[in-house]
Amino acid sequence: MDTSQVIKAHEVAKKAHFGQIDRAGIDYIKHPETVASFVATDEEKAVAYLHDVIEDTSLTLLDLKKEGFSKNIIEAVDILTKKKGQDYQSYLNLVKKNELARVVKLADLRHNSDLTRLPLI
């Protein structure tokens, strides 16, 4: 995979999350940017940037396909998108079966559990 997919994922995420603010009052895009900084490969970084766009914005998986993202990236983003009515255990069971989704989820949990963010939240 080339870095153009990472750059495109970052741009898509920035546009999709534009105007969104987290509970600490910080631009939401800082969360996927931090998650991306925790992972190693280009594919992992692309998924990290995109991991919340389906759940938290108007983008769809079809939009990601139209943007030219690989099947692996789209599949991992889909798995990381918790569906309405899906219990957390079945969600985690799917995540752990997909290495790409699992790596990004662990990075996501790492950032979400960062105690240094608490004073801000």
Structure notes:
The chain has 121 residues and is mainly alpha-helical. The chain has a single domain (3-117), classed as Orthogonal Bundle (Hypothetical protein af1432), CATH 1.10.3210.10. The chain is 63% helix and 0% strand. α1 (3-16) runs parallel beside α3 (42-50), α2 (30-38) runs antiparallel to α3 (42-50) and α3 (42-50) crosses α8. It is globular and about 35 Å long. This is HD domain-containing protein.
The N- to C-terminal Cα distance equals 36 Å
Sum up the overall morphology in one term: globular
CATH superfamily caption: Hypothetical protein af1432
Q: Work out the radius of gyration.
A: 14 Å
CATH class: Mainly Alpha
Domain module tally? 1
The counted number of beta strands is 0
Number of H/I helices: 8
| Major beta-sheet overview | none
CATH topology tier name: Hypothetical protein af1432
Fold topology:
Blueprint: H1 3-16, H2 30-38, H3 42-50, H4 53-56, H5 61-66, H6 71-80, H7 88-97, H8 99-112
Organism: Streptococcus pneumoniae
Protein name: HD domain-containing protein
Provide a short characterization of the protein structure.
The chain is mainly alpha-helical and 121 residues long. It has helices at 3-16, 30-38, 42-50, 53-56, 61-66, 71-80, 88-97, 99-112.
Highlighted features:
121 residues; mainly alpha; 8 helices; globular
